[in-house]
Structure formats: structure tokens, C-alpha cells
Amino acid sequence: MRTVGVEEELLLVDPDSGEPKSLSAAVLARATQDDPGQDVFQKELFGQMLEFATHPQADMADLGAEIVRCRKEASRLAGEIGCAVAALATHPMPVTPSLTVHERYQWMAGQYGMTTQDQLVCGCHAHVSVESDEEGVAVLDRIRPWLPVLLALSANSPFWQGRDTDYVSYRGRVVRRWPQAGPNELFGSAERYHRLVRDMVASGVVLDRGMLYFDARLSASYPTVEIRVADVCLRADTTVLIATLARALVETAAREWRSGRPPLDHSVSLLRLAAWQAARSGLDEDLLDPVSLRPRPAAEVLYALLEHTGEALTDSGDAAGVEEGVATLLRRGNGAHEQRLLMERTGSLRDVVTACVRHTQD
């Protein structure tokens, strides 16, 4: 059974006003004080962000329980220094990001200018184990057209600097301001993948291989495929759904590779359109069908994803849970939908943030 680990980025906010708080250093100091050897919580690009990483898990119930524990622990640590955590992919209110003091982040600020300053966005990264770089690259080639569907499911960033963006995942647009972000052409082999990585680093535009923000990549640190396309999800059960589907996509792609089935040869230009459509309307309107890249109702595309990964989901015992999770999301809506409902009901972005703090803790 392939293992899955999850990294989630959370926002630090004032529990009453909802305003962002640049207190990640204090939260991390408190975490280290409690456990000097802790490696769960990490700093991020800005002081208003806190990241945690789960351990690799083979059982999705265990992964879900660990995500909930990490969120609750992050909430406890933040509460002890007078702030709270919110699983929001962008902060709805006006915010001036505060760059974390670190040589790497200072390099990024100097290299990318305003693009760096605009990146106060929170994602969810799923690491799925692979047996080799060759298998991993074969997986990357075959999961490309399905990644926008994961973005649509996770979409949780409709507001930006105090305004409704008319997108469900504005984070999905912001991260593509990096010159090295987005979908890739087919690699064909691990050798070609690593050659591209070496050439990109040698260009001097990026600092190292960890700064290649592809929608999915080989991890620089672990024997995994790292799927980076999703927003951080408002609710932990959505994160588990994304992780479960990520594993099923990886397993399905690996089986196709072993059987000699070639990947779909979609152009990067069309894959960018599919990602744009997912970020624009998510589950509310059409998505681009991953096979035909033509418009199709979002619900039909979701069930096409379940059919595509059905054998892998059945073999891992996850089919029923994923079907229930998809049905719940179609009924309840993703995080962006919930945020907009909160805004309609309260008329206050502050109230949106404080309600999302409660959802994160729950």
C-alpha cells in the first residue's frame, strides 16, 4: 500500500478581529519549548503563516486523525500566544505580508520582487510514495490532466485584499506568477526530468530544485511524488479526500505505465486553460474534461475521476469513503462556497475569518 503524507499551510490571525498576525516565530518557539525535537511545525515564507507536516500513513483514517491532531495542536500553540489558526488559502481581509527572516526568503524577495510579496497564500501538498524516480516521472506524465480536478475540489480562496475575486481559488492564480510554476510538458523518463531540473537551476532564475513549483514534482527530500496543486482545505475531511484521490491517481498512473499505456499528450497550453477553469468556477459550473479537454459539468468530471481511479480505490478499501466525500462536497460545497455563504449571511469579512477559525479547530 502506498503511503501518503500531507503538508498544510495555515494562516495566523487575531481571534477577535480576524486580522493577520505575524507571529509564526513565537508559535514555533512555543512548539520547540514543549518538544525540543519536534519536526511537525515549520516556518514559511511569511510570518503570518504556519506549516505542519504529517507522518506517512497507509490508512486514510489514520491520516485524517493526524491532520485533526496537528490542526488542534497548532490551534493550542497559537492560542497560548494570543492568536488563532485558520485554514484559508488566502486571507479575505487587506493584509501586508511580513517576510520571514531567512536567507532563502531574502533571496526570493530580491529575485522576484513584487511576485514574492504577493504570495501570502496557503496550499495543501500531498506526498505519495513511489518505488523509483522512473516510476515517479511516469506518474507525473500521466496525472497531469487530472490535477485541475483536485484544485476544484479544494478551492478555498475567493477573497483577496478585501474583495471578492470572482474566482473560487484565487490562490490558484497567484501561485502561477512564479516563473517556474504550473503544468509541465511530458518528461518521458527520469533522466529527462532531472536534466530539466539541472538546466532550470543552472539558469540562475531559481535557487535550487526545491524552488521548482510545478503542480506536481518529485520531492527533493522524500521518495514521493508531491502533488502541490490544491488549496489548503477549510475542513479536514476535504484534505483527506484530496490525499486519498492523490494516492489513487498515483497508483492508477503507475499501473498504466507498467502495462505500457502511454500518457495523454495534452499541450501545456490546454492544461493551463483547464487549471484556469478550475480556479475560476470550481464545482459551480463546467470543468474541462481531463480526457477531451472540452467543457463538461463539474459533477460529471468528478465521477469520471472516480471511474478513472476506481480499481485503485477499491483495492485500497477507499472507494466507499471517496464516493461519500465527493457527494458531501457536491452537496455542501467547497471552502470557497462556504466562505461566500458566510459573507452573504454576515456581511463581514471579519466574521468570515472568525467562523473559519472555528471550522479549522473543529
UniProtKB/TrEMBL annotation:
One of its GO terms (biological process) is modified amino acid biosynthetic process. InterPro entries: GCL_type2/YbdK_subfam, GCS2, Gln_synth/guanido_kin_cat_dom, YbdK. It comes from the Bacteria. It is an enzyme of class 6 (ligase). GO terms for molecular function: ATP binding; glutamate-cysteine ligase activity. Its EC number is 6.3.2.2. It catalyses: L-cysteine + L-glutamate + ATP = gamma-L-glutamyl-L-cysteine + ADP + phosphate + H(+). Keywords: ATP-binding, Ligase, Nucleotide-binding. Belongs to the glutamate--cysteine ligase type 2 family. YbdK subfamily. ATP-dependent carboxylate-amine ligase which exhibits weak glutamate--cysteine ligase activity. NCBIfam families: gshA_cyan_rel, PRK13517.1-1. This is Putative glutamate--cysteine ligase 2. It comes from Streptomyces diastatochromogenes.
